[in-house]
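Archive entry. Fields below.
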Amino acid sequence: MMEPGLYHLLFISAALFFIGVYGFLTRRNLITMLMSIELILNSVNLNFIAFNKYLWPGKMDGLFFTLFIIAIAAAEAAVAIAIIINLYRSHQSIDVENAEELKY
Amino acid sequence: MNLLLLIGAPLLTAVAVLLSRNREQVKWISLAGSVVQLAVAFVLLFAYTGERAAGNTAQMLFEQHHVLFASLNINFHFGVDGISVAMVLLTSFVLIAGVLVSWNIEKMTKEFYFLLILLALGAYGFFISLDLFILFFFLEISVIPKYLLIGIWGSGKKEYSANKLALMLMGGSALILVGMLGLYFTAGHSFDIMALSQKNIPTNVQYIIFPLLFVGFGVFTALFPLHTWVPDGHSSAPTAGSMFLAGISMKLGGYGCLRVATYLLPEGAKEYAQIIIVLSAIAILYGAFATMMQKDLKYINAYSSVSHVGFSLLGIGMLTQTAITGALMQMVSHGLMTALFFAVIGMIYDRTHTRMVNEMGGLMKVMPFITTVLFIVGLCSLGLPGLSGFVAEMTVFMGSWQRDDLFHRIATIAAAMSIVVTAVYILRAIGNTAMGPLKNAGYLQLKDAAWNEKLAAVILVAGILAIGIAPGWLNDLLRPAAEEIMNKIGGK
Amino acid sequence: MITGSTIIFYLLASLTLTCGFLSVTTRQIFRAAIYLLFSLIGIAGLYFWLQYEFIAAVQVVVYVGGIVVLIIFSIFLTQQAGEKLAKQKPGRKIFSALAVFCGFALTMIQVYQHTFYETSETPLPTTVFNIGKKMMNVNEEGYALPFEVISMLLLAAMIGCIVIALRSKPETK
Amino acid sequence: MPNSTAIALIPLLPLAGFLLLGLAGRKYLKNSSGIIGTALLLASTVLALYTAYEYFFVYGRVNGVYQQFVPLEITWLEFSKGVSINISLIIDPISVMMLVVVTFVSLMVHVYSLGYMKGEERFPTYYSFLGLFTFSMLGLVLSGNIFQIYIFWELVGVSSFLLIGYYYDKPSAVAACKKAFIVTRFADLGFLIGILILSYSAGTLDFPTLIQRLTSPGSDEIKTAVTYSFLGISALSWGAMLVFIGGAGKSAMFPLHIWLPDAMEGPTPVSALIHAATMVVAGVYLVARLFPVFALTTPAVLEIIGWVGAVSAIIAAVIACTQTDIKRVLAYSTMSQIGYMMFALGVSSYGGGGESGYTASLFHLFTHAMFKALLFLGAGAVIHFVHSNEMKDMGGLRKYLPITHITFLIACLAIAGIPPFAGFFSKEAILLAAHENNKAIYWIALITSGLTAFYMFRLYFTIFWNKPHVIHGEKHGEGGWAMMLPLVLLAVGAAAAGFIPFGEFVSPDGKPIESKFHLGFSVAPVALGVGGIIAALWLYKKQSDKSTKLAASLGRLYKAAYHKFYIDEIYLFITRKVLFNLVGRPAAWFDRHVVDGLVNLAGNTTQAVSEGIKKVQSGKVQQYAIYFLAGVILLAVLVIYGWK
Amino acid sequence: MNEFLTLMKSELLVTAIIFLLLFIKIGKGIKNESLLSLVQALLLVNFIAGFFLNTTGNLFGDMFYTNPLIVFQKNILGLGVYLISLLCADWLKKSEHLPEFFMLLLSALLGMFLMISSGNLLIFYLSLELATIPVAAMANFDLNKKRSSEGAMKMILSSAFSSGILLFGISLLYGASGTISFAEIPAQLDNSPLQVLAFVFLFTAFAFKLSIVPFHLWTADVYEGSPIAVTAFLSVISKGSVAFIFMTTLYKVFQPMQEIWYNMLVMLAVATMVIGNLFALRQQNIKRFLAFSSIAQVGFILVGISSNDNMGITAVVYFILVYIFSNLAAFGVAAVISDQSGRENIDDYRGLYKTNPFLSWVLALALFSLAGIPPTAGFFGKLFLLTAGGSKASYWFITVAALNMVISLYYYLRVVRAVFMEKNEHPVENLKPGLPVKLGLIICAAGIVLIGLLSWIYDYIHSLS
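PREDICTED_STRUCTURE:
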């Protein structure tokens, strides 16, 4: 085993990113899709922190980026959940496959 | 002579039409406006000939520059040579006749006249523009009024025809646009025709741009095989619409083929001349043969237009001064003739409510005036001396014959053969409608032309005769301009 | 040479990835939320491991304390806690997996082929003081503007949520 | 010097008549239009006679040679330097002679129509058309420019069309006028291309220059023209040949003659004017006008002309023997006589003593105008009387129509070539010329002359003798003075015109030629003529079945001749079956289904594609994301690996 | 401080309005009509204020950058919002959440302003989200309609997904270049594969926002589901703002990669025009129809962007100015009809001219302008885009674009045909839009007719760029 470093973190982050993407693509429940989004955002955060730590420690660009992403994630999640709940009220379902009235 | 008058007069008329209150006002304002435009056109003619007589040898007269988009070097650049003057005159003739024959339009009269005048505005602007961008602007202006005229006031499968027309014409202008931009960038950011004509555009670029421009304008002027909007469009359009369509719009294309494509890209023209000749010879003969089989009067004239306009393109493709003069004459002549033909067809249709040749017969008995005009226009179409068609076609033939290799000879002979086929279908049409026993006793009640129709017909017939009997003035107008073009191209 | 730090790293990494993976594959929605929680905690752990304590703290507070709770609430709200999640069509799964794999491979190849620029900057300690100072700075390298922007965003999001979630009378239509 | 105003007025007066009557006739001049038209033409005729007198006897001959004058020339349309259509008046022996013929016959017809067409509804229109025709014909003969001649050529064509279709509600008349126009138009196509070739070679359109350039053997024009050839025939020969085709069409030469018999659907005076005396000889005039070119530069074409004339002459004569419609008999006879004129030109040559054919041809043109117009007008009187064109409705009319009878007989004798009537002299001259130059044609001509006598007297006897006439309804006379006066005047012409010393005035180069006259030579044709008359007398004087028996014994030949050798059917086949069905219909079909189909196909394809790809927009947000991701990956791969 | 006020005047004004509304909402609240008039007045003030005190400068280090061109772009957007407030007045009056609606709308506008002015990736990302999340909430404002929620859901999820990819790209770029400042990035670009990959990720976020094929799929669904005012905002203002920043980013930040993005632009432009047109052909719902047509329009904008010079900037800004008038006029008419008769299908528009000539003419004018028919301004807009795109002299590219104009004409004419030519037994009754709506429509119509002919506008933009 190697000494953990930048590439390891990048691997984890990329893996997590694509796990999130996979979840987003395959999950039928809207809330679980939202959860996948959170995974995606977290992977990005990890990337930023890793780069900040290993490559560009002179400034804190990555760190701040991460900080703001976390805030945005919260806002986004809030709005998304509000919408999902509203959708649930009218559809009585939060299965994404059922929300396909708008098409073609 | 301020050329802006030619734009201002129709513009004012159009605005006045929009502001008028009732049908009568609309009609009289339109008529007055078109009379004014006719007057302006004549003033232009006399001013032009006067200048020329006074020894002004500039290629373009009455030039005007107004900066429009300075940063793109787009200007209102207007100016006329003999060709423009002739075309402007043609437009004003057709406009006034169109206004007159539409006198009894009941549906949405105001809109109808507004569009009609807008169409004329586009044509005037197109013919006097010396800036490609402005030229294109006016060309496009004239497309949508046609669409609406056909779609709203037309008959038969009007929506289909209107769509086809609009799309094909826009397709043509799309090609023009590309060609135009190509010119703009190769010649150092200029749309000015006069400036472009001074530039040396590399031959390989000409080879690319010329077909774009020529085919683009060719669509407007029914270049085979892109002519199929013509029969449908003409047959569905209301009378005045068909008159404008065939009388003016198709001329826009011919004018563009010459003034833009051929003049600016002589090497391209030489390269593709043979193809143009083949296509136009096909159009001439094929159009004539296809006409022979038509039963609807409007289709007859539509296909015959394809055939006749072929002469214009043939003349251009021949690239001799005489042939080009002939091509231009053919444009003017065909404009008047076909407008008149459609006017007559409209008059007949208004009365008999059919356009089918075999359902009519013996109309000479009930409407002598209309049938007389039908005879005149038919004879003009088949090239009877004394009428304009003859002069134009003969000039084309004489010009074409100056190319003395076998290819051009055969093309000329093929084109000349159409005069026989033309005789066949024209006589068939006239024979079956005007002559023969009266097919329908009900026709006995029909009235002959009303004053407005008579006036319209007389105006157009006057134009046809003016060219047919004394072609010299038109020749003097067009020939020097054609010579300028040939000087640029080089050759005979 | 295996140090404790390395072991911790790998433990955290495997926790994060495993939980993340389980979170997107389990068919029990509540479990999914819990797996997500652990995955996020794993990431927080990695931040700790990287000595970015402030971020780690924020991560725990906002994500674990905020978002995951929000999600769990919404799961309850939509009354699906006990049910198994509907199965996805296999075709969709295969395509997604394929696309995801390609994307992953592509990214990793690019990352590993890239030689990152070795910096010689002196690291700026990520103390709360430094962070706070920068956050409030309006000049060069200050983050006051983003801070304001995010506040507007949060305000807007709040308004939006209120309007949507508190719809007055659900008319039956 | 010629008086250009007077000469210009000759065609312009009828034109004025046309315009006046055409525009105002219907409403305001309903009854006086005939008088106005006739008066104008009378003035025209007087001017023409005056011009002829002045030309032939006062100023025309200089040093014993008749000169060519161009008193008026206006540039009408300039094509390029030196090549322009000039509207000009040319004065030389043939044009002056034609002026006289045209105005005189036209005047006769105008007068005659006053009686014949009386009470017609479109009386003013009729006179205006006559005016138009006369104008065009006069313009044609005065043309000093080959394109001018083409212009008037077309105009006479259209006036002929209008007059044939005068009874426009009769389907047969409509068909006939269309046919006449189209067939001649076809020939005109040849003429037009011929003009293009000749004018291109000569570099001018003016006759005098054109002829001068194309006949001087060493000229540049000839040299260049000769180098161009197509299918092994020189451009000039093609040009001359094509010009002749134009003439052949107008003059109803075989095989372009089919329109002429049908043209008889027009009013009879019109047939007399247009389809007997004037327009149909335009082809002869044209060849005569360009005679130096034919004779000096393209003798081969001239020989073809000769043969076409001869063949037309005999074929027409044979057909004429079998027809039962009197106007058709006369029409074929016209064709046959024009064939005479044509081959007379064909056997002639320019200078060197061989030019007698030329003179003879024009002489015959002159006399033929007289007697053929007379025949038609006489036939008109007969038709007017019995209201039918068919021979079977006639017979024994000599009692009822005495003046017509006598004048008709004179005309028949003239055309049969019985001395001392006009036809004898001109025909003798033609036969003599043929005898001198081409024996084969001579024999054909001789046989034709016998046939001519036979069918003319067949006509004569059937109309005026044969069975006694039964009068249906009220009895009316021969028609007033208006109809009789032209008959008498023309009869005088037909009887006396032969004594004019034609060779004095008309020859290819303007120098008078001596009229040769051999008494011995005349024996054969006159004998044949008399034989023909006797045969007709025997067969048709009394009502009998001899003629039917004879016809039966001739079998196929008779049938073929009766059906005009099926030439019409061949034409019908070519036009209907080949042109309409094999060219026109496919062209129309092709246009609607292939060309237009392609355009529609483009539209439909777009629609279909649009319909086909709608599934992409499935409404499923995850699917969208897959496309998104796939798009990103593809783009990245393309950018990283594709465009490096 | 003075500099701060002048440079950020648009942003500050908008923020002030937002807070004003917030206080009104928290306080007693006033009647919708008067509130609406107030907002309209304030927006007008905001628009007019945009013409004064335009200077160039940086704030907050290099995070905020502005210059006259950027101010002009902001003005265009401000004008668009003002027009929306006029055109949708009838619908807004009836809304229960009028203040909230405007607060969200203006937050989004604020986000766009900041986005256009952004000087580094962080502020860009934040303002992008600020411009997106409130709009997603607004999309759900037809609270009782299923479609509205569905649209909002699709929007928020898709945009979250897209911002995930964007962020991943930014993070890689950050790693590979070490900076997030727009000013510093170009120097660090060496076109290494990782940077290119990061750029592609970044690019697709723009593509998503601009609805470039194949990242466009959310567009139509969201447009159709949302209230018409939101659709109008999305299709005009939102697109316009992204187009501006997209162009700036490409020209300024990624100039070293221009070969790469030129190729991408060409390919995507063609795909976007073709697919947008093909989908628009068959649409029945007017909003969906306009959605696809706006996708096709974006294709043309890309043609202009591909030129990579001043001419391109001018053409794009000019086109968006024209586009705002044209598209808003179309949406305005659709809003009136949908609001007062509840009809949104093109077939319902048949015979409209008989009953509503004014609306019909405005609609026709708008559609002609969208199709690029003279004398409307759309003609000039399209033509300048193609001219800009033509400067690279790639004939086939321009030909494809020009031919796509023809296809687009087909479906625009379809609506015109329905309105003017076809017969309908139950046409839309005679509608009486309110005064603000009429005013809005007239402004739009005047804009459509005049902008093209008033050539100094173009020259003015050119002088700015």
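CURATOR_NOTE: The beta strands of chain B are 61-69, 74-80.
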